Structure formats: C-alpha cells, structure tokens
Amino acid sequence: MNVSFSIAPYFFKERRAKLNSFRKRKVEIVAEIDSLLKNSSSLAIVEYRGLTVNELEQLRKEFKSAGVLSKVYKNRLFKIAAENNGYLDLQTDLVGPNLFAFGTTDAIAPAKIIAKNAKEQPLLILKGGIYDNQVVSAAENALISALPSYTEALTMLASGLQSPLKQLAFGLKLLIDEQKITA
C-alpha cells in the first residue's frame, strides 16, 4: 500500500510537467497567429474537407509561389488569437478542417488562388476572412477574388492611357499617307 503512494507523486509530477509543456506550446502557437494577423495584409479561410494530399500540396505550392503563407491551425487556438485582435466575427467560419492563407505581399492573392482552384476542385470552399483589417464574409471574399491585382490594375490603367494616343498617331499617319496633310 505504501508503494502505490510513493509512485503516485512521481506519476502526477511527470504528467503535470507534460501538460505544462503542451500549454506552453499552445501559447506559442497563439502568439504566432497573433503575429500573422497583425503583420499580414489579408486572410482567407478555406475548408479543405475531402481534398487529397496531392491536391492540398499543389494548392500550398501555388500559395507559396504567390507569396502567400498557408497553415493549418486548430480552430480553438485561432479563435483565441482572433479574439485577441478584435476579429470576433470570424468565429462562425472556424468550423471544420480549415486552411488559413495569409496574404503577405498581395492582399488579393489568397482569395484569387482559392477561387481559381475552387472551380477545378468543388470540395474547396472559400469561407470568410480578413481584408483591410475588416472581417469579410464568404460572398465578400468571392467579390475580392474577382478584383484585379495591383500589377493587373496598373497594366489596365497604362493601356487605357495609351489607347487614345495610339489611335491619334494612327489617324495622323493615315492622313499623311493620303497626303491630306504634310508632316
């Protein structure tokens, strides 16, 4: 009987130490999520239930090539970090297996990549997220994915400014060729 009492304190001490290490790791993960939420320009939450490992790896490769950080976190830990940063409305989207895509360089890139892949893989569901420090719904995230990226917008602007000048130059060249005006 005394033997069982002498083993018990050792067992509970070891178990308590293991639980403390798990708790420390969870605190570190919440701090990591906090940092990502503060430093990233956008966040898209994706449900990936039913995807194969190869499909998920391909999605992650696309994210990486676009400068998007993608990670899987426990929803409970993400809820804690979201509450710490004032994103209480995200809690409704934190159900099921979720992949969190943080836009670091281009704010629209996560939503664009997910929308493109969702056409090929219907099991990929774009949920809500954060854009411009505002919580957005799945519908708003879909609208954001339709927006042009920064470089695409600049290209559209440049071509819009260039088009009238090209038409003027072409018209003047035709008039010169027909010799209605002299150069």
Can you tell me about this structure?
It is elongated and about 105 Å long. The chain is an alpha+beta fold and 183 residues long. The chain is built from six helices and five strands. The N and C termini lie far apart (113 Å). The mean pLDDT is 84. Strands 2-3-1-4-5 form a five-stranded antiparallel sheet.
State the gist of this model.
The protein is an alpha+beta fold and 183 residues long. 60% of the residues lie in helices and 14% in strands. It has helices at 2-39, 53-65, 75-84, 109-120, 138-146, 150-177; strands at residues 42-47, 68-71, 98-103, 125-131, 134-136.
Relevant CATH superfamily of the largest domain: Ribosomal protein L10, N-terminal RNA-binding domain
Which class of secondary structure composition applies to the elements? alpha+beta
How far is the N terminus from the C terminus?
113 Å
CATH class of the largest domain: Alpha Beta
**Major sheet:** 5 strands, antiparallel
CATH topology of the largest domain: Alpha-Beta Plaits
Give the overall form: elongated
The total number of structural domains is: 2
The appropriate CATH architecture of the largest domain is 2-Layer Sandwich
Q: What helical percentage do the residues reach?
A: 55-70%
Number of strands: 5
Tell me the β content: 5-15%
Low-pLDDT sequence parts? none
Q: Output the strand order for the largest sheet.
A: 2-3-1-4-5
Q: Give the rounded overall mean pLDDT.
A: 84
- How large, in whole angstroms, is the Cα Rg? 27 Å
Order of helices and strands: HEHEHEHEEHH
**How many separate helices?**
6
